[in-house]
Amino acid sequence: MLDQKRDRSPEPIVTKTYKTLRVPAEVYPYSAGVYGGLLGGLGMIPFAVIYGLLSGNGIWYPVNLIAATIIRTWQQASPAELAQFSIPGLFFGLLIHFAMSMGLGLTFAVLLPGLDARPLLWSFIVGPILWGGAVFAGLPLFNPVMARLVDWPSFALANFAYSLILGLWVARTPKIPAE
Description:
Shape: elongated
Distance between the termini: 56 Å
Largest sheet: 2 strands, antiparallel
Strand order of the largest sheet: 1-2
């Protein structure tokens, strides 16, 4: 009986501290980023056409530069050759351009819940970072001719248009419950 009445100290309680992750109740759907990226990609096209006209290289030059990623023989093409209309150049150039635009838009939508969810503001920060990363990291590997011949001021203006359109589209898209 004496053992039962002995004063036992309680077992120490071990607590663990975890950093809390703030998960928003509502998020923008990923499809908003895909569609916003597609529309942003469309918004880049007038800048490419204007650049082609003002540079004297013609309107097909920018899309053919992009197509040189897949049409490897164009890696050694002269600017005059890249200025010519080509159905495969148009097809592959637009395919790559819109795939990149939608992929980067999706990436933006995936990143957005981790930010403070102001899509228009963040599109001007994240959009150029994503495009810049894709261009500076991937372009020299996959398309050295475009890395060498791209006109950076017109590309920057086109990226501004992309970011504006992406941010506006995502911002106007209704949020959905986070799952």
